């Protein structure tokens, strides 16, 4: 992972000053920065892995297909790519969503600076926070991104703490995205030959964290990143993105070659991806893959809204690990079991770019 070019001595003070401004990266842009400040510089951010050859694209799962075919397509995509576009989900999502939620999130991030600053803070006591870079004080280089983060489970945020300009749209989208996640969990269980409610019964729909990202226009898009390469820690992610683009997924083909594939915005499609916990529960049948957000060189800020679904049951006597049906004598468990507090504790100690979370639990 890249390291910042800001000298270490002044870096802590610069980070604090940036955070104290309470207006995020959007605030830097509003103040007229014409270069990327050192704190945000990722040396050689796009060097390591090549881009995919033309014509390579993440798979599509069509919900209008008969359920067994849709389940087979979802399972194949989750196994080979860890990511897919979901299309024809109109039985679950009204036609004006997720567009309304994306527009409302944009409206919040484009409020005048003092109105945004009133919401700024990292504490999640009320279940709602607005900040720039969740790992600002842990990562070697900050990214060009601001976020509203909302907890919807197992404890539900206080709705009155959601900024009014996007409140009803965010609450509505959480319900629609949960319907999508339920349908995906059923298909993914079916694709593993498990009873279809297995993940839901393991409370995997009950822990929910929503992130409403805003990637401002950037004066030097080649010197920073919107989001560093990472995999999602939870079970499943449902992501809505606007038409700007920038999300890329790392894919390794059958010849062992890895490249970044653009997850270009597809009208009417949601992006679904497998998280680390589902890779573990499926005993590596499904995989959680790295993805990142590159800066777009255009004149339009990008907005995306992701919801991470996790187990809601978090007691010290509740353990997660490979599902017993998938860990047999022919296919022994590849991971040990753990409680959610151990899992989340291990996640929170790392910066986002770390790939070590899944390794931590490997047998
Ligand atoms: O903004 C995006 O497209 C991706 C967001 C993401 O990967 C995340 O929040 O973990």
Automatic annotation (TrEMBL):
Fe2OG dioxygenase domain mapped to chain residues: 204-311
Protein name: Fe2OG dioxygenase domain-containing protein
Family: Belongs to the iron/ascorbate-dependent oxidoreductase family.
Organism expressing this protein natively: Lolium multiflorum
Domain of life (superkingdom): Eukaryota
InterPro entries the record matches: DIOX_N, IPNS-like_FE2OG_OXY, IPNS-like_sf, Oxoglu/Fe-dep_dioxygenase_dom
Record GO terms (molecular function): dioxygenase activity; metal ion binding
Keywords: Iron, Metal-binding, Oxidoreductase
Keyword Oxidoreductase: yes
């Amino acid at each position: 992972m890249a390291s910042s070019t800001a000298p270490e001595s002044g870096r802590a003070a610069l980070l604090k000053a940036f955070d104290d401004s309470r207006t995020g990266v959007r605030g830097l842009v509003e103040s007229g920065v014409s270069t990327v400040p050192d704190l945000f510089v990722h040396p050689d951010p796009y060097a390591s892995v090549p881009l995919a050859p033309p014509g390579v694209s993440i798979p599509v799962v069509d919900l209008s297909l008969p359920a067994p075919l849709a389940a087979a397509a979802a399972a194949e995509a989750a196994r080979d790519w860890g990511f897919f576009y979901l299309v024809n989900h109109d039985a679950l999502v009204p036609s004006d969503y997720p567009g309304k939620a994306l527009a409302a999130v944009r409206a919040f991030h484009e409020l005048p600076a003092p109105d945004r600053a009133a919401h700024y803070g990292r504490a999640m006591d009320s279940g709602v926070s607005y900040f720039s870079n969740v790992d600002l004080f842990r990562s070697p280089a900050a990214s060009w991104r601001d976020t509203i983060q909302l907890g919807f489970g197992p404890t539900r945020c206080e709705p009155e703490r959601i900024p009014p300009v996007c409140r009803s749209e965010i609450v509505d989208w959480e319900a629609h995205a949960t319907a999508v996640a339920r349908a995906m969990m059923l298909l993914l269980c079916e694709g593993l030959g498990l009873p279809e409610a297995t993940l839901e019964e393991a409370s995997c729909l009950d822990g929910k964290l929503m992130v409403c990202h805003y990637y401002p226009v950037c004066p030097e898009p080649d010197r920073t990143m919107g989001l560093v390469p990472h995999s999602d820690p939870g079970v499943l992610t449902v992501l809505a993105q606007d038409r700007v683009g920038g999300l890329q997924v790392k894919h390794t083909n059958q010849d062992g070659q890895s490249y970044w594939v653009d997850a270009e915005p597809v009208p009417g499609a949601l992006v679904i991806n497998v998280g680390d916990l589902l890779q573990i529960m499926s005993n590596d049948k499904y995989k959680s893959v790295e993805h990142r957000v590159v800066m777009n060189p255009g004149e339009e800020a990008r907005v995306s809204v992701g919801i991470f679904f996790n187990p809601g049951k978090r007691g010290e006597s509740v353990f997660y690990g490979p599902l017993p049906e998938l860990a047999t004598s022919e296919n022994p468990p590849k991971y040990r079991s753990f409680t959610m507090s151990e899992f989340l504790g291990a996640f929170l100690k790392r910066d986002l770019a770390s790939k070590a979370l899944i390794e931590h639990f490997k047998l």
